[in-house]
Specification:
- The chain has 19 helices and 13 strands.
- The chain is of the alpha/beta class and 481 residues long.
- The longest helix is centred in the first third of the chain and has 21 residues.
Amino acid sequence: MSLSPRHSEIGEKPTKILKTEKHFDVYTQLHNHETSSPASEEVCSEEEDENWSRLPHVALVKVFSCLEESDKLQVQFVCKRWYSIIRHSPCLWRAKSFRFSGRDSRDLTHIPYRYATHYVRTFGKYLHYLHFRLYSPVSSGVCKKFQKSIKVCLSHLIKQKAKLKELSLPLLHLDRSQWMLYREDMCAALANFFCKGQHMVEEVYFRGARAPFADGYKVLYALGYNTGSTVTVLDMEDFFDGRLPVFDLPQFIDCMKYFTRLEELDLNYGCVSEEILQVLAKNLEPNALQRMFIKVYAHDPHNQVIWGQAWTSLTNRCPNLTVEMLFQRVMTFGEHFRILCPQVPLTEVIFDGCYIADRDWQIQPTLASILPHFKEKLTKLCIDLPDTNEVFDNELLYLVQSCPNLTLLKLNAFVSTRFVSKLLEMKQEKKCNITILRARLFVRDYDTAAEERDLEQIFNKYRDIITDEMEDYYVTCGVSM
């Protein structure tokens, strides 16, 4: 399952033309209603009016459900019947996403924020999925407008007893200076909503909030204490300011015990400890937790030691648990060895150098000595190391051959064309099960002509394997910065 949420940009879609048996569509009717003169209205066929008036309630709701939001808001003024149907049909207003940009001149005014509060006041009682997103707040004034809008919207949801199933406020970045005067009020509004609102939220996405612990703890405690028995998806990656060792704070450990039905959990390694794993193993319902995503960042606290017994207790409670790990700028063998104990049910691992990698880092020991311990479970491997100039063809080929369930391999590193050839040869001999290969092979010279010729020859040689047995194959050459 995925975060959600994960937790994308949604462009404006063309209006769908929905026709009746007489080939009349809603868009044309609305256009004629707005532009036609009284004389032309008299010429309209009575048969057309009768066809629309005879449509049953269910059919009209089906038609309106296919319209874009802007069209629904206009079509409601065609007649009293349509107005009543659109305004009082909950299925038409189940999901809403608000997006504000601190760099958009229109969003610097009060107009979009007033629209958001008016929308929630009108249709909030029908909402099940609500998403707010603020892009690039360049001033404290934008943050103030956004915070007040969120506070008013949440208060309307409380009054209307809305039954939200999903709430998403990603990438708030409350650690920025623009939020200094309003971050406390923002967190207080969220905590108040979870305390006084309905208690049926199932999915919560707070990725990238970067809240101070005192403010973030209030939100998390209110969420767990009041809705912990219903939340199944919790995305709290980068929820706290990364400089604090959250795993060592007893308040955090205490509030995590209220989440008993978690199926997906995204968090930082700075929030993981033996105590946290034991709390989850003790309080979660059997077989509840299915997926964990753990981000390990070089500048976050990650020096704690978690023994394999804690992971074993959690996997005994939730035997279907899979763990995905992202390592950002953490490339030393010692750090990997301490974090990746064999008892972790690791299925996916990503090594990301972030284009500012330490050239002394080496991935070879990890590929050769650590990852083979997860050969029975590992299904996806992504390596993004464009700056280290490290070649690890042999170690990676051995790992791929050792992992029977490894199906996806993404590379952005100094890997030779020989690696691609050997991998496809292993695929042909049924010695590996890679079905998705996406690779960008970096070279030390600015001239990549020789490598491109090699890749073309490799493709022609193994064309049948690629077309018949590979779901996705994309290999190209590049020059490191």
